[in-house]
Amino acid sequence: MTNPGPESKSLVEDGRLSATSARRVVFEQLLRDAHDGLFGQRALRCRIELRTPHALILAFGDDCDLDAVGRLIAGAVRQAVHVSCVTESPRHVAVVVPAASHSLWAFARRSGAEAAASRHACVLMREPVVGLRALRAQYLAGVADASIALALGLDGPVIDAGELVIGRMLSLISAAEQDLVLKPLRRILALPAEHRASYMRTLELLHRHGGSLVRAADVLHVHPNTVRYRVERIEEMTGMCLADPRHRMRVDLATLLVHLRGYPADQSPDFRLSLRLRGGPTTAGRSAGAWR
What we know:
Elements: H1 6-14, H2 19-32, H3 39-45, E1 54-60, H4 66-76, E2 81-85, E3 92-98, H5 102-118, E4 122-129, H6 132-152, H7 165-171, H8 175-182, H9 186-189, H10 193-208, H11 213-220, H12 224-238, H13 245-261, H14 271-277
Antiparallel strand pairs: 1-3, 1-4, 2-3
C-alpha cells in the first residue's frame, strides 16, 4: 500500500473525507511517514488529537494473510483503523484501536488473538497511550519487538512480552560487549557455513526445547545419538559443559545474539540504530494512566 498522496492530504485538511477515512489517512501518515512540521496541523484539522487512550495491535508473520487479520480486528472493534505495511520488513499490519476503558481494551485483545489464530499469524499488544507522538513511539517499539520475535522463532498467536525481554537487553549492548557475549561460540562461528549452521540450529532447538535431545532430534529429523554427538563437539569447541546452568546460560545468550543479528554480526556501534533501520526499538510512549 502506498502512502497517502498530496490529494488525499489536502482532502483531509479541507474536511472533504468522511471521519473514518480521515482517521485512516492520518494514522497512515503517523505510522509510515517521518514527522514533519505540518503533521500536527493536519491531525488537528481532522480533530484527531487522541486525548483518549488508543492502543495498538501489531500482526506479523510469514506465509499468512496479514491484511485479512487487520480487517478482522478492525471490523470487530468499533472505530479501529488498520494500516497495512506488508511490503516492509518485517511484514506487518498495525491496527489502532480506541481503548477508553479496560473492558474495551480487553475486547480488542480477544479480537486480535482470535483473528491471528484464524490466519496463523502472530500479534503483539501495545498498551494504550494518550497522544499521537506516544502512539507512534509504541508503533516503532512494536515493530522492533516483532523483529525480535521472528528472529527468536517465538510461538503465537499472542507473543508474551516477557519472552522479548532478553532480546531487548541484547539489542542495547555495544559492539564490544557483543564480542564478549559471542566469545563461547567463536570456534563454532569460524567453521565453514554448512557446519556452522548445523551446530547453531542444534543449539537453537536445544534452547527452545529445554535441552531435550529427543525433541531436538525430532525437529532435525535425525537420530538422538546424532544430536548427542553434536553436543559433545559443541562442548569440546566451546569449553563449556551444557549441563552446567552457568555455562548453558552463556551459550544460550550467545546463540540468541547470533539469531538476532545474523553472522557475521553487524558491526554498527549502535545495535539499537541498526535494529531501528530494520524497524527497530525505540522508547515506548508514556502510559495512558488511569482509564475511565
